[in-house]
Every structure is written in C-alpha cells, then in structure tokens.
Amino acid sequence: MGDIRKIIHVDMDAFFASVEQRDNPDLRGKPVAVGGSSARGVVAAASYEARKFGVKSAMPSVTAKRLCPDLIFTKGRFDAYRQVSGQIREIFRQHTDLIEPLSLDEAYLDVTHDKQNIGSAVKIAKQIRAEIEKQTQLTASAGVSYNKFIAKLASDQNKPNGICVILPEKGAEFVASLPVRRFHGVGPRTAEKMQRLGIKMGQDLLQYDEIWMAQHFGSYGQYLFLAARGIDNRPVQPSRKRKSVGAERTFGEDKSSAADLTAIMHEVGEDVWARMDKAKAIGKTVILKIKYNDFTQITRSLTPGAFIKEKRELFDIGEILLRQIFPVQKPVRLLGLTMSNLSTNDMGSEIEPKNAQPSFDF
C-alpha cells in the first residue's frame, strides 16, 4: 500500500477574460466575452460580470448579447494567454515536477513529495496562488485533497479567488453533498439520464452497485461508483496521452453545395495535418463533424484499419465521410475534422496508480 497523495487542482478565474481586463483597463468591472464578436460567432470565455447574466463559454454570441445587452466582445489573443500560462507553469515547477495540465488555465499538481520540503499541500496551494497573483496580477482558485476527482470539485467550490481543502476523512461526505451535474465527465446527456433515474446528488449514487452502474453508464459507471465513495486512484500524469487532434470552421454564410463543403473540408484537413505533424502523431480514425444552420449536429467516422500516414489518405477518407451527407438536408454552418486513436513516441506512458490510506496531515 502506498502513501496517500497530496493533490492540488489549480484553476485560473475566468482566465481569457481576466487577461483582457488586466491588459485593458477600460474593460475592468464590465461584462466581457472573448470571441464571438460576429453574429455567427461563439463565446470562448466570459468574465464574471458577464456570467451573472448567464453568459458562458460555447454559447452563440447572439444568445449572449440577448442575455446581456451591454456585453463587450473582444478578440481572443491566444499568444498572450499562452505566455501567461507559461509563467504559471514555472511557478508550479518550483514545487513539483508532477504537473498534469488540462488546458492553458488549469492543472493538477502532485505535491506529496514537494521540492521545497514544505510538507503541507495547503501551504503550497496558498503560496502558488499568492505567487500567481504577484507575477501575473490574476487570481486563481485551488482545490486541495487526496485525489484528482475531489481536488477538481474543490477548486470550483469557492470561486473566484478561493481555496477549498477536503481532508481524506471528509472526502466521501463532500462528494455525497454535491449535485452530480458538477462531477467531471457528467455532460448534459448524462445529467439528463441521471435525472430520469432519480439521481440528483452524489449520495443518490450510493444506493447502486457496480453492476447496475455499468449497465446504465458503461465504463464510466465504474468510475462513478468509486468516485461517489470518494475513491479515485488515477495518478497525476506529467505526460498526458493526447486522444485526438482536430480543427473546424464556422462559415460566414451557410453552405449547401458539395463543391463548397469539399473545398472547406480540405482546408480544415490541412490544419489537422499540420497539427498532427507538430504533435509527431499518427491516427487510425477520422471523424467528420457537421453542424446545420438550426444548430443540430451529426458526426460520421471511419477507421480504415491501419494508421493514416499520408495527408492524401486523410483527404480521401474525409471525402468518403462527406459523401454520406450529400445531398445536404439543411444548410451547413460548421464543418470539423478530427483524427483520433493516435499513436506517437512522445505521448508518455501509463503510470501504475497507488492505493491510498486515509490518515494524513495536510
């Protein structure tokens, strides 16, 4: 049996929007949306002032503007966000090399054996948050616990600019008290299914065994069964295996012709192939995503059996998938292409998880 882990989940507060407000004083204290400035655009991020009106990421800009008439749209500056993210990662590295980034603005840290021998995960989280604010003038929230599942839940508990510590003996109780819609991995469809089954809170999951969970939720059911009991043995993985590489286009005007959509598919395919090349990856599966002008969405996929090693193969498969939707039933507003089932020598390897024992000074 291994020692229990000390895990911190750090999550920047409204990251993209906060960077914009930091760099442009005129935006401070005002409702701001990053991206989505066109009538057909989508919000990439929203400030807390905008969130009060119900504006959130992935929302169509027309909806966001209707909810918040004073909403200010600003173009995303991803080079700036990456630069700040790099600063934050350097702060993490002062304490541990076991860092698992989830995106530019959040990461898991395993500080069980921290570089500075501070010994307390709570003290480390406080130091990290203070240093982030000092260096970047931005705030971060943190969750501190004994596994990744609970640390991530905890980081959202006292947002913005907050910290939440869940000790091992309180883990199961904490999970039981939360709505299941807050669980990482529970999307709208799963939440709707749970609602139909009468599952609203974490404690509602405790009445079901592993077999029932697997029957209703597949492989995610076993994860949920353990998570509902405060158990998550996944390690923090510094090299996370990338699952897919994709790109997409939202059109200025809806498209219906086969020629237009095929040409756009090739443009998107060029982006995908460039990203695959940069990642030194090859893939087995190609996925086509189509979003119609009424926002309904379909996907089509094909796995030819061998790894796709030439760009021409990607385009050929993309055309095969496109032909399945011709003639289009409705005008198309978005086309995306993704490669999955990836393989690369640079993706890292699985780490055997340790078992945890719930007795520990945080």
Topology:
Layout: E1 7-12, H1 15-23, E2 32-34, E3 45-46, H2 48-51, H3 61-67, E4 72-74, H4 78-93, E5 99-103, E6 106-110, H5 121-136, E7 140-145, H6 148-155, E8 163-165, H7 171-176, H8 188-196, H9 210-217, H10 219-227, E9 244-255, H11 258-279, E10 282-292, E11 297-302, H12 311-323, E12 332-343
Parallel strand pairs: 2-4, 7-8
Antiparallel strand pairs: 1-6, 1-7, 2-3, 5-6, 9-12, 10-11, 10-12
Helix pairs in contact: 4-5, 9-10, 11-12
What's the pLDDT, averaged over the residues? 89
Widest beta sheet: strand line-up: 5-6-1-7-8
Give the full name of the CATH homologous superfamily of the largest domain: DNA polymerase, Y-family, little finger domain
Strand percentage: 15-25%
Please write the string of helix (H) and strand (E) elements: EHEEHHEHEEHEHEHHHHEHEEHE
Highest-level CATH class of the largest domain = Alpha Beta
The percent of residues in helical segments reads 25-40%
Report how far the terminal alpha carbons are from each other: 19 Å
Given as residue ranges, the uncertain stretches (5+ residues, pLDDT < 50) are 345-360
Count of separate DSSP helical elements: 12
